[in-house]
Amino acid sequence: MTHIMLINPNELIKRAAVELKKGQLVNPPEWSRLVKTGHHKERLPEDNDWWYIRSAAILRSIARLGPVGTEKLRTKYGGKKNRGNKPEHVYKASGSVIRKSLQQLEKSGLIVQTEKGVHKGRVLSPKGVSFLDKIAVSIMKENKKK
Predict the structure, then answer these.
(1) Full residue range of the structural domain in which residue 117 is found
(2) Alpha carbon distances (Å) from 61 to 9, 42, 102, 111
(3) Which of 78, 79, 81, 114 could potentially form a cystine with 92 if both were Cys, beta carbons 3.0 to 4.6 Å apart?
(4) Taking Cα atoms as reference points, which of 53, 42, 54, 38 lies closest to residue 94?
């Protein structure tokens, strides 16, 4: 078994985004072409497949961080805003984008909600673990061939 943390995150996220799009496990909402990913951003995402990439990145973050909620992911994907002459200020990412992505991943069966002791949030389901493991194994095989 190949652990997903041993794989280059960029490769894993790109490949997972392709698989999410191909399997139609998540679909971008109509408004996704018109929104920024956070208050700290100046422009819209340039990549047309940004919804799939963000969903794949969220899936990997859930696998890595365990029970995770929307607020923790908003903090993770937030950033600094350039405010001209004024000092930079840290802002969280868009909650709607993350929430809708989590709902779609949950609907596709890749993640489930849990209450683990005092920790409440979403974790990978067995289907989500096998989804990421299959991608990790294929990347590992390709890297061995090179």
Answers:
(1) 4-145
(2) 10, 24, 11, 12
(3) 78
(4) 38
Cβ-proximal residues to 62 (8 Å cutoff; 6+ apart), any chain: 68, 111, 122, 123, 124, 128
What integer pLDDT is reported at residue 1 of this predicted model?
A: 45
Residue 123 is classified by DSSP as E
Residues 13, 65: contact at Cβ < 8 Å? no
- Kindly list the averaged pLDDT for each block of 10 residues, start to end, along the chain of length 146: 79 93 90 87 86 94 90 92 91 92 94 83 92 92 85
Question: Which pLDDT score is estimated for 20?
Answer: 92
Q: Kindly report the CATH number assigned to the domain that includes residue 113.
A: 1.10.10.10
Sign of the torsion angle spanned by Cα atoms 16, 22, 27, 33: positive
What angle, 0 to 180 degrees and rounded to 10, lies between the N-to-C axes of helices 50-65 and 126-145? 100
How many distinct structural domains can be found in the chain? 1
